[in-house]
Amino acid sequence: MPIQVLPPQLANQIAAGEVVERPASVVKELVENSLDAGASRIDIDIERGGAKLIRIRDNGGGIKKEELALALARHATSKIASLDDLEAIISLGFRGEALASISSVSRLTLTSRTAEQQEAWQAYAEGRDMDVTIKPAAHPVGTTLEVLDLFYNTPARRKFMRTEKTEFTHIDEVVRRIALARFDVTINLSHNGKMMRQYRAVQGSTPRERRLGSICGPAFLEQALAIEWQHGDLALRGWVAEPKGTTAALAEIQYCYVNGRMMRDRLINHAIRQACEDKLGIDQQPAYVLYLEIDPHQVDVNVHPAKHEVRFHQSRLVHDFIYQGVVSVLQQQAANPLALDEPREDAPRWQPENRVAAGKNHFADPAPRERSVARENDTPRFNATAGASSHGSGRSSASQGGWPHATPGYEKEQGALYRQLLETPAVTPPPEPPARKASPPPAPALDGHSYSFGRVLTLVSENVALLERDGKLMLLSLSVAERCLKQAQLLPRDEAPCAQPLLIPVRLKISGDERGIVTRAHPQLQRLGIEIMLDAQHVTIRAVPLPLRQQNLQILIPELIGYLAQQTNADDAAVAGWLARHLVIAQPWSVAQAIATLTELERLCPQMVKSPPEGLLQLIDLQPAMNALTHE
């Protein structure tokens, strides 16, 4: 067969193989054209799952009579005119293939009128050469596209269509995605003459959340945490569900948009998954509706036939930006879990002034947040939802109310037995009068030359482990152990802790007094691995040690400045201890996490095994229990 130019209809049908997969693809392409035309109302009529009829009517700008024939031609578009336009594209469509491809596999009619025209005009293409016929019609300002008998002339494609219900389900999902992208547009969807969906245009955050609830369901709205995160030309907005309250049904809600274009991008999904991985169970998936805004020059949208994927020029920057945004809102939720904490009357704390993030990240609280740190003999004020664990996931299960509760790491019978041991008479002196707080007994020194705390038997509470060594039983506070571990990681030994550069530096506005405090503490912060830059009104955090890498620096750094303002003579150990206390969040532990923490603590601080700090270990006196058994 000689080389020859394909007929226009055949060429368009080949192109339709990429653009038009099923009726839902037609709806997507036509609705996106309506949005590009500036429509504020779009009516979608479907019959027989789209196989018989797809009608899209909008009130957009319309198409001029002399451009109607071009609208149905291949590679004809008003969106771009040069390569520069393509590289800075902000419209949803730009290839000029959709109408030509759809008209080649269906009976398509285009009716449109502009505000300047007195009458509307109708166009349709037919025949082997796709000749366009134009005739006058009655129509308001806007455009209507009717697609009849989809795939009527391509039987092989029509055979692959599913049932009417299945095809309409795909159309419904496409409309749902578009409705989430454009809250300012009214979208109505009907099927076989019955109104199925009505998404009314809304303005403002509260109406947007109501529309979000109507699309994604009240269960998602109850768990949704709002995100508003910005750095330079990057902005991330939307909602992410609290991971511990995410159910299998909510996990199906995974919508992301880049410059208003719905995407299924692996890089974005990986960043979100990585941000939530410490708080998700093994079989859990994050649920989110997120909108990424980026300079159009920094993203290539022309990499997928259906424009479902994009390519970022600085993919690592985008990945870390999304990761930090999601982590920040999850950490803020962990610090303030729906007012589960009762206010505690602590000593007045110095509060830094002018605490506003220069990057407009709205996670900087006007006052330092109240952090709950588990200490020995202090009942944790968070339940399982209050603290984001940095040790693993899958330690909680969702309750019927959507909020998970801690799952005990030991059997009830074992717990009762160990509690009986704990209820033996105390061997420590009784506390002194209330005017003076009694000091706890010194921690037991461990004999021998082994640098090990012993064997972890079980957990007797959410953050207390039962250890055995040389025939002795001891209680160990896991929160104190973690605090000691964090402090050891932060304290400079032979050399300063390795500073981890931040891909997106954190910039905070500070007052003149705060600037003086930071200037004075600059050498000390540098020894601790915190690299900063100062200008007249801002402090920029450029690098932090590894333990601070996952923290919300927008909150932690202002609190650190407040601490340094109060403790003018604090040495490196004191500052590291303060940071360590703020890194430890009350949480339920597992035996595996307890073993891992103790192993790392023994490696970094072998001297701590010989001389445990106050509040870390408590020896259990078994003699009273043994006497009771022998009736002595």
Automatic annotation (TrEMBL):
Bias kind Basic and acidic residues: ranges: 367-379
Natural source organism: Cronobacter condimenti 1330
Residue stretches making up the DNA mismatch repair protein S5 domain: 212-331
PANTHER family documented for this protein: DNA MISMATCH REPAIR PROTEIN MLH, PMS, MUTL, DNA MISMATCH REPAIR PROTEIN MLH1
Gene name of the record: mutL
SMART domains in alphabetical order: DNA_mis_repair (SM01340), MutL_C (SM00853)
InterPro entries to which the protein is assigned, alphabetical: DNA_mismatch_repair_CS (IPR014762), DNA_mismatch_repair_MutL (IPR020667), DNA_mismatch_S5_2-like (IPR013507), HATPase_C_sf (IPR036890), MutL/Mlh/PMS (IPR002099), MutL/Mlh/Pms-like (IPR038973), MutL_C (IPR014790), MutL_C_dimsub (IPR042120)
Domain MutL C-terminal dimerisation: 456-589
PROSITE patterns found in the cross-reference section: DNA_MISMATCH_REPAIR_1
Taxonomic lineage: Bacteria, Pseudomonadati, Pseudomonadota, Gammaproteobacteria, Enterobacterales
Family: Belongs to the DNA mismatch repair MutL/HexB family.
UniProt keyword annotations, A-Z: DNA damage, DNA repair
Protein name: DNA mismatch repair protein MutL
Biased composition (Low complexity): 384-402
GO CC, alphabetical: mismatch repair complex
GO biological process: mismatch repair
